[in-house]
Amino acid sequence: MTAHPPRRSPEEQARLDAALTDLFERRISFNEVLGLRIDAMDPADFRMRFAMRPELVGHYLYGRLHGGVISAALDATGGNAVVLALAEKHAHETAEQVMHRFARIGTIDLRIDYLRPGLGSHFIASAEVLRLGGRVATVQMRLTNEQGSLLATGTGAYMVS
Q: How many contiguous H segments (helices) and E segments (strands) does the chain have?
């Protein structure tokens, strides 16, 4: 039987959560442009939210969210969920060690299915890591509006090493 290393302390977990929040919301500049904010830092159900703004409109007559914004928000949420899953998989590592893992993550493949027009005052992007392998992670993403209408789904493959 293999002994597992001890989980990081609550203080170290708080440092990691703060570092990941800073990374996801501010240090990744494009996430900041989109207005992405963490809604739930749960490794099993990671969620980010953003508000509708005139800069994000793709169809000026109807005020719909641009498809590229939908794709980018789902991709960012999927990639961030992978970082969180890696942090959980390596729960014995310090915040600094986990943050170094972020440098290796990149999108390999992304598929977005647009299901309904992007209408709403704010949107929630969620991601579930289906498989976290040694080299590749597979993630399923969803985008809903404030009324809970499913607007788009996505599947992504992310390089993790």
A: 4, 8
